[in-house]
Amino acid sequence: MSRRRLLAAAGASGVAALAGCSGGNTEPTDSGSGSGSGSGDTTDESGESGMSVADASFSNAYTGNPVDLHFNASATQNFAWPAGRAVFAPFLKYSFNNSEFMYGALSDLQIEDQEVTMTFRDDLTWSNGDEWTTEDLEVQLQLAQKTGSSLFGYVDDFEMVDDKTGKLILSGPTNPQIIKFELTNFFVDTKAETHEQWLDAPEADFLQWAWEDPVASGMFQFENKDQQAFEFSRNPEFYKSDNVNFESYLLESYGGNTAQHQALISGTEVDASTSLFTPPEIADRFPDHVVEVNIPAKWGYGIVFNHNDPHFGKRNVRQAVAHVINRQALVDNAGPRTKFTAPIPCGIAPRDQEYWLGDWYDDFETYGADETQAEQATQLLEEAGYTKVDGTWQDSEGETLGGEYFSPSGWTDWTTMTQTVVSQLNEFGFDFSVSTKPTNDWFGQYSNSNFSMGSLYWLPGGSRSSFPYFPLYYQLWATDIGGGHGYREKADSEQTIPSRDGGETTLNPLEVTRNIARQANDDESRPYVQQAAWHNHIELPFLGLVSKFEQSWVTDDEWTVASEDSPNRRVKWPPFWWVHEGELQYQG
After folding, report:
1. Which of 96, 202, 404, 552 is deepest in the core (most CB within 10 A)?
2. Where does residue 307 rank: exposed (0-12), middle (13-18), buried (19+ CB within 10 A)?
3. Quick one: how far is CA 484 from the chain centroid?
4. DSSP class of 470
């Protein structure tokens, strides 16, 4: 019996007994999320509308220890986002196939003048049978405001119109695209009954809350978790429950990319992997029924600096790092089939830079995308007071320029890029050592500001990263690590930087970035994008190095898949959204 069928037969109580059947680490992978596989007997049960529901289980591979993870989406360090996709309904999704937005829990969205009216489905219900109402939405928005959501960079207030309609009051004219992209990051994941306790609590307490037993609004409801897997069952209260024709969904824990590759090569262990970097020589070993789906990631490998560090808090040192790193070498070593460099490290997704920067594009410093610019780096470090002694850069007190460079264990392509970065830096004269950490600990180093510089994604990811406001804001505020990079105070202050004409210009980078969102269209947003990107490429709150196409994997031996031309084909993420839309069903 295959591992996936064994899990399906075990059921909720049996999963715990099977824990430890596959060894290895339990850290998250490049995606931070999972994969899947299907199994189960073919005995059918009758759904609410008389549809046939198979006693089958879809298994999605995941690298991470479920025991350490929870369902509080605001506590990003230990939030199990793939598990969240299983149990929480999205407000809105974006299709890269037809460049259109699609409704999830929303039934209508109107953006007029300075008001956004959100109407939710009449049949939106919690898994315990409670009706969803705007009382839940109000608590969700209050907590989003409390925790500094980017939404409140251009939303002044909100009000509830009726039980299914809420209204956002904008601070001024706002590009409708930014509202829509923002809402793709919202899910029905806040129930007033469970969350209102945090409204008057300190923000830090809410961000440490581990929500272990969520009430679901999406396709599945939570049943159990242990070291081996999250287990979910079909949610009969889900508004599109007729699209879900199988009984259970597993997020199985694997020990990194390599273990997930082996599971897919077997052809029987898993049914999917939500996001898994796979080099061509490994993909060629997958059975024919394993299907690859490529989706623009708007995410990728970069460097986060600690701006309170005595060395890397200096602009000259950060710029020197940028000049030393040959970005193309990272791509060549870690996966040229799906990865590509950032032409300019400026806080804008690579394929969007020319459109947004316009006639400013050629004025930006590239820092050498495909070379090490040692001469420029040397000059910057010498100007900052550093000298090279016996091949290593030192400050005036003899302290070397380096430290531990953190990277997530189990993310094989990131490991390769980290080794490339550290090798290049040390060859130039820095003094770094690689320190790989389980993903939760990796985040913890940054959240606690216990680092000098290290690897971290430089774009927040997803369709929203197509609009520059989101990645530029993300780099200033570092929401995913709670501002642990120490730049927030500086971001919201007047800064004087070199200007395009060789003089100087003074700006508040946070305010300029917020003004991107406050314009009615792209043409009016562009001047603010140009200013914010110009600041970003000089100050380098993060250093953007590489972006990529996501590799999402599904199987079509026992499961249906969305066609190449389906609007659902390239929506994040296939193992979840396809279920929502009835395009991933059991056919075994």
Report:
1. 552
2. buried
3. 17
4. H
* pTM across the whole model: 0.81
Q: Among 5-19, 119-133, 562-576, whose mean pLDDT is lowest?
A: 5-19
Q: Give the C-alpha separation, 534 to 357, whole Å.
A: 9
Q: What is the residue whose two structure tokens read 């315990």?
A: 128
Residue type, 241: S
CA 501 vs CA 120, 353, 364, 498, 504: distances in Å = 50, 20, 12, 8, 8
- The answer, yes or no, to whether residue 286 has pLDDT greater than 60, is yes
Structure tokens belonging to residue 155: 């939303």
Tell me how far apart the alpha carbons of residues 349 and 345 are, in angstroms, rounded to a whole number.
9
From CA 121, how far away is CA 108, in angstroms rounded?
A: 8
Helix (H) or strand (E) holding 47: none
What residues have CB less than 8 Å from 280, skipping those under 6 apart? Answer: 337
pLDDT tens for 71-127 read 999 998 889 999 999 999 999 999 999 999 999 999 999 999 899 999 999 999 999
Label residue 520 by pLDDT band (50, 70, 90): confident
Instruction: Report the alpha-carbon distance of residue 126 to residue 240 in Å, rounded.
Output: 13
Nearest partner of 572 among 34, 76, 71, 95, judged by Cα: 95
What token pair was written down for 212?
Answer: 């272990």
